[in-house]
Structures
1.
Amino acid sequence: MRNCIRTLSLAILTLVFSSCASMNLNVGNVVALGQGVQQYQAASQTEFTPEQEYYIGRAVAANILSTRKVFDNKAATGYLNVLERALAIYSDRPETFGGYHVLIMDSDEINAFSAPGGLILVSRGLLRCAQNEDEVAAILAHETSHVVLKHGLNAIKESRKTEALKNLAVTSANTLGGSNVQQLTDIFKDSIGDIVNTMVNNGYSRDLEFQADQMALKIMRNAGYDPRAFEGMLKVMEVRLKPGGLDFAKTHPDPKDRIEKVDQTLAGWPTVTTPAKAQAVRQARYQAALGSV
Amino acid sequence: MSRVSLAVAACLMMAAAAAFAADPSQMSVQVEQVKVRATPSALGSIVGTLAYGDRVTVLDQPSDAPQSWRKVSMVEKGISGWVSLSALTEKEIKLQAGSQNAQTGASSGEVALAGKGFSEDVEKQYKSEGNVDYTWVDRMKGYNPTDDQVARFLQDGGLNTSGGAQ
């Protein structure tokens, strides 16, 4: 009987370990399982959840908006938010924890920021680089792509991310007391600093910007916009960006380089012909909402 | 009760936990709330709303259904329909008792506890320590176009009205 039980135990353990192997767990996790679900999950967190991304994104946007004025125009902002939703549903990530939302910064600089989770801030100066709705769609599709690709979250220094996730996991397993909140807040603050510093001062790498451009073309095509409008918007930007500026002149690749890569992709895509009536509708609502931006 | 019996019981519990966690037919809602649609389209008619942490059963779906949508049901809410895959996770999200705005503390595990982590508590503490103004961040959320607005926008502009159902 005892042998029988031992054999059974061995079989079950084998089953458990093979199951865990398929879940990328280790022996430590299995032991933790026996100690409670909290410990089990504490040992396994490797990335931020959509909800954590949401709180990070709120803080990033709040930081940026703390030093910038908002262009409080309901018609223009409402229009951009409908357009944003119309693009987001054709992206690879139509749903984020708190959804996509757009706000206009009251500034002549050519700039935009995509906070994690979908809070998109775009300047009046950048919107003026667009001459029609399709070109505004190009701007928003590019910013949406930064959110979809989680470029903001990836700007957190790797060592800090590891520390943050470790702490998040541990505090998930225990009661979140005052000291835990303080410790988490310190890490949170540093993480926000990493993202804001990258967005405002250093910019993402050229590769990430090109990635966002390529994804934006796909979003535009999926939604029914003419992806060639992306090039039109970049050409205006090329003329208007001032060397030495603290905006896209500093944080983004030269529009010429972006146009070159966009052209390479579009060369293989069929031409989009927009019916005159649809074109007229788009132009009329673009003018009504952003004509005076 | 011998030690061997205890070991067997512990192993059985672990096996059951592992089997449950790996159940591919169950998913959880990982966004604040998501509309359930009658068709696999972001503009499909709404049959209900699911909230963060809701556990759903993934139903069989036609082979030609879009890969980015899942047909699900939640018996407790009497809802059955289509949800964007981006709103779902295979992890189970356990809500903390008394937590109104639930938070999860884990990501890649099969079970995630809610109510912990970067959360309202941390945001509150963060706000109290600096000169960060959330006024406009909160106002941004008010810009939330309805399905009708988006559908009409796409329709009038001669754009794609499939709602991502291609």
2.
Amino acid sequence: MSRMIAVAAAGVCRRYGRRWALTDVSFEVPEGALVMVTGRNGSGKSTLLRVLATAIRPDRGTVRILDIDVRAARDSVRRKVALLGHRTHLYEPLTALENLTVRARFLGADSRRGPLLSRLEEVGLADRGDDPVQSFSAGMRQRLALASVLQQQARVVLLDEPYGHLDPPGFLLVDGLLQRLRREGATVLMATHLVSRGRNLCDRGLVLEAGRLAYAGTAAQMPQPAGADGAGFAEGA
Amino acid sequence: MKDLLAALRKDLLLQWRGRAQVIAIFAFGAAALLLFSFAIGPDSAALREHAAGFLWLGLLLASTLALAESFEREMEEQALEGLLLLPASTRGLYYGKAIANWAHLALLGVALVPVMVVLYDAGTLRLISLVGVILLGTAGLSAPGTLYAAMTSQTRARQTLLPLLLFPLVVPVLLAAVKATSLLILGDPMGQLRPWTTLLAAFGVIHWSIGGLLFGRVVED
Amino acid sequence: MRQSPTGPKVLVALGVALLLAGSWWGLTKAPGEVYMGEVQRIMYVHVPTAWNAMLALSFAFVCALCFLLTNAWKWDSRLEAAMEMGVVLSLLLCIQGSIWAKPTWGVWWDWDPRLTTTAVMVFAFGGILALRAFVDDPARRAVWSAVACIVAFVDVPIVYFSVKWWNSLHQAQSTPQTVSSAFHLPLRVNAFGILFLWTGLVALRSRVASLRLRNELGPPLPDSRPAVTGAAPIAGGAS
């Protein structure tokens, strides 16, 4: 069975000033795969996801998303990709519903209250829909950010530390969302430190070390990050 | 286009949410007008003669606060980047923000008129024309101001950089708007209003065009 | 470290020589102007400075456009050098104008449209140089200063016309009269003198800017930011 290649990176390099955050990263991800991206802090996971999301440009190399070159047709790529980044991309003075409404209007999607409320229900925020994001805790902001990512109904979903700030029910929420995305045929790349959890959920894995790709293969055979304190260190339930 | 409308609605909503700031900025403008009168002294004739200048200077100073504020909310959680990734067209985002800023500044200008009337005994019966001049002048401030505010809100010395970049650029707006307003207040026997309003309009057309073209380069990587 | 290229240095030397020659001629040999007296001799430096200030800033505008179109770093270095040169020349212009105005009109500044526009340009382009100082990321710095330079340059004619109309309501045109045809030669000599001088200096200065950029970014510094697009062989990859 040959599936389409959803994400193809070739020789991707990205610098910040003197420091090369990514050096010569190349890999392919078939459509529908659930990929875990791990590495130490500062190994380039966030940078890689941001490059794939077209938030930043690669200084060298090419990226093709669903066979579209990101440099040639950036807007087309953006229509198909959604990013859950480190910043929430939310407007603090607006309410949760208003944030989703604003985005729905740009997406050309249904911006009525009803459908957006059910999106909030999916992430467990239905009762806080009319509260300003300013009043939210970090975990709640994370949930809202997840809702806005799902809203885009993208074919390639990029998640940077989706479990961050969440409580144990939140962990289960993310697990459920990942499984749902997989059922819907979306391709997911997820950067996370929760290696054991990811290994159970994902079928592929990428390991970054100091900006270089150290491993690209199945999740089951992924090595532990070098120097990690073993699988049990501060991972979720 | 739909992005422009979506952006405009978003920016007006943000302004409405931040209306306490709007009132504070008005207070700043009014305070500036008061300070100008102290600087000149209680000479009513002199105050009246220069009232137009004070109004526009006060408006210009207050506009830097308003313009900077308009991008605070976009940058604190990278909300603007979030919209760009949807994707949202940069032109729509620019014009939506610029129009919302224009509305804010025009409102500010109109609100400062009574302050000017009271402090400088400088009123006019040609109110429609005055509102027209305010609309044209604030349009000239809003277009380049929105472009530069997008830049400076991402730098370290944002408070000083925005006025530094904007003020030299909007000298024609200041000249023309003050002249036009002065003619309305002090009388315009020779009908000289038209050239100044034309200058304001030309300035606006030019800067609204290039602003839309260049905004994308300013906010994208 | 290679020595800096000789071409620009020759230009600078030639420029200085021409400027000295033209100025000496204008200051000593050329006859004094009947109505304005000796102070009018400043025109031999003032007019060429004015031409060259405008040229330098126009070149900056071209560099800004080229950078936005090509993304090549060399245009950013040239833009920085050209803007600095433009600001310096414009500042000199304002100072020369004041030196002329004080004995002539009794005031340091007479709101002459051209000089006033020049003063506005000093602030406008000086502001862009200040912007550059506050942006750490070289790519962003380059794009933003190019954008700001274009906006400022487009504004220059508008500023000029608005000041001209504004001023014409108050006083008659106060342009210092340019020299009559007999005195053109020192003017031209000085014009070329300043031209060579600033061109050589800009070449040297943009080289310094390039070197500093190289230092900021470290090797390897590509000629332009995005690499060539097109199908690249997919190396390595997941199973």
